Amino acid sequence: MERKITEQGIKKFKEELIKAEKRKHTIDKYIRDIGKLRDYIGDTELTKEAVIQYKEYLEQCGRYKIASINSFLAVVNHFCEVMGWSELRIKMIKVQQEIFTPENKELTIKEYERLICTALKRGDKKLALIIQTLGSTGIRISELCYITTETLKVGMADIYNKGKIRRILYPTHLVLILKEYVLKENIKSGYIFCTRNGNPINRSNIWRAMKNLCKEAKVDEKKVYPHNMRHLFARCFYKLKSDIAKLADVLGHSSIETTRIYIKTTWKEHKRQLDMMGLVLLKTLSEKQDNNPFKNTIT
Fold it and tell me: Which among 215, 189, 204, 206 has a CA at the least distance from the CA of 132?
């Protein structure tokens, strides 16, 4: 039996993803990723060699980051398992763990505040509230649909994602401003952030609206996207209470290793912490007040 990527095979793969209760946008991504592989190999048989060549092509074409390539390969491996071709699975590209967050990717509190103020200045209170809801609860953009008028009454929401339920609490002031918003907008029940037809607001529209604030707010566009609000929440939470296990529960992570990615600091912040430790005792010539290089140090 020839191993080819056919419409029938893709349909079977999609059915398995639906059975696994994957979200629609996740299923769409998986199908697109398999489409990439099919475009590459055409009607030829899928072999281990062909998959390896595809991996090399993704690395050499210069269009994708390593993380993206690994996500493509993970989908290919999953597809091969579903089709009963497990021997075609290949290894991911090994990536050395980054110690620090790049400066141009870390959204600061001041930048976060400027985005909200800019949205309010433009008269877009909905966007300002969306940013604050994401930032103050740490939810994913896909979980925004769980923020409903009913949940405001109890100050919390049960979120179902990735096959599990977690409960998130609302900050007191968030409840107050959301209640004020739904009253003004006459939102009686259901989704708080919705379209005129009452459907949950589209994530791509939120993404574009946030990007549109950047120039006026004087914030680097690279830092502004919904998921970065979740990273900001994680850093603030961990700074206040250094409990990575609790943070993992709040964020809905199965592994603390995933949570560690969210609480990385920039190299400047790390250097500031090293300087505050005061473990270098010798002074420079300009700092010395006498011949004792250890003056004013702990004895």
Answer: 206
